[in-house]
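Our collaborator T.R. sent over the components below with a one-line note: 'Predict the complex.' Nothing else. No constraints on interfaces, no templates requested, no preferences about which chain binds where. So this is a plain run: every listed entity goes in together, and whatever single assembly comes back becomes the starting point for the next discussion.
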Amino acid sequence: MINKTAAEMSNALAKGEVTSVALTKAHLDRIADVDPKVKAFLHVDNENALAQAAAVDADRAAGKALGPLAGVPLALKDVLAQKGVPTTAGSKILQGWKPPYDSTVVAKLKAAGVVILGKTNMDEFAMGSSTENSGYGPTFNPWDLTRTPGGSSGGSAAAVSAFQAPIAIGSDTGGSIRQPAALTGIVGVRPTYGAVSRYGLIAYSSSLDQAGPFGRTVLDTAMLHEVISGHDPKDATSINAPVPAVVAAAKSGNVKGLKIGVIKQLQGSGYQTGVLARFNESLEILASLGAEIVEVDCPSFEFALAAYYLIAPSECSSNLARFDAMRYGLRTGDVDGASAESVMNSTRESGFGREVKRRIILGTYALSSGYYDAYYGSAQKIRTLIIEDYKKAFTQADVLVSPTSPITAFKIGEKSEDPIAMYLADVATIPVNLAGICGMSLPAGLADEDNLPVGFQIMAPAMQDQRLYQVGAALEAALVTKWGGHLISKAPALGGAK
Amino acid sequence: MSSLSRDDVAKLANLARIEMTEDELVNLASQFGSILDAVARVQELNLDGVKATSHPQPLENIFRQDVVLPSLSPDQALSGAPAQEDQRFRVPQILGEAE
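Returned assembly:
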């Protein structure tokens, strides 16, 4: 049962072929079996998950109207507050914290009857591209346990890839859904900024952060996308507009007559041969399905990475000031006579990890007087140029495409001592965040040189998320036919003791 | 080549309220040059006349009616407090007696 898609699970539940309790137990068993190797979860919530599942089964037996994902299990990135359940954002500074409220994403999942299996591992405060920056140890890529699953939502991506959950929630500030989706051979979508409420999403960089769905298929991802989207008065940046018809688009996948723009700046040097080979193959398939492929020029993208690594650290240095050891979270150094300031200094030293400190210091520097205009100010102007590049490109094409990640999954430890090398992992995903638009990564096959998954990225204008699913579903259908099944069926079994 | 000294990092760490160890200060100072070089690329373009974007959405201020809505109870709000006393957060001394 765990090998089915979420859509198939939904059908089986509706027909009474399986109960949510049985389905949930099967996933909890799988977690117990393989998670000692994968380490996707920080907290597995057996009791609550089974209670939620039993409640959905009871509602179904009573004939209540249920949403399509009611009773389907899900893995939740530990960046989202869930009432009464440990929520750490991968940081020691929040160890043991149990939020007194639900994030809007969690409230929507509960209202839809989705069963939350537990909280998944992540780079601390979503800062990283490998999940190695977690305060609780790394997550391992189910395709090759010596490699990272990408990040920062590496736990969620690995859980879906290892069949520990059919769907999962991640968050994407610079590529943290799309890049791990690419590296683990699954589908991940960063919705339009403001489409999914940030209420209860622990903030890293508020103008870039956005929660979004993972699935093993385009349709499963769309079903979850629809459940978590919508206007929320609790988030002042939430868009008050109808949710794009993503599920309908995922069911109708068609690219005939569509213009697909290949971004000149997001390919070439720095991109692995096998990544480019699979990318070009996908382009040929899209052309054969009736799409018109054009090349678009986005010259400012060359500066996107630099702008991001000023804007995001600047916002993080401000956002993370809330961890002051006074109202919640860790407190150290509170000895007799210690000042509030020395307690803050001590707590933040012992509670934050290396990368978080690095970014707080970088942000503090970029915002300090004398440097503000040269660094943060210039980065904000580059952001304007990137938005203008996209605007122009979207007059020439309906969607834009690129490889999701320049490289396939890298080895644990390979980049952890070199921050700049790690930052380059996000080179193709960051422009979407800076412009506030939407993007998808879906599997394009395995790279010839290492047999590891390659991601194909699709980008669409703000609130045109359905275009991602329309194009993604068409490409996925053609690839599945070509491969004789989904790419994920080629992943190692990982079967442990049982 | 940009660079930042150990003392520069110490000053920033103090502003950010992080009590770094000597090892951390030296290590971060040694890495900072290459990080600053990478991000300084934003200064390569002529950006005169380009407007700054602080946010991807063209949002105006959002207002709501000033009405009381249900919120956390004192017990809920204090549930994660490192220390509490009489339904309040207990914090270390903020004002020195000598001041």
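Summary for T.R.: The radius of gyration of chain A is 21 Å.
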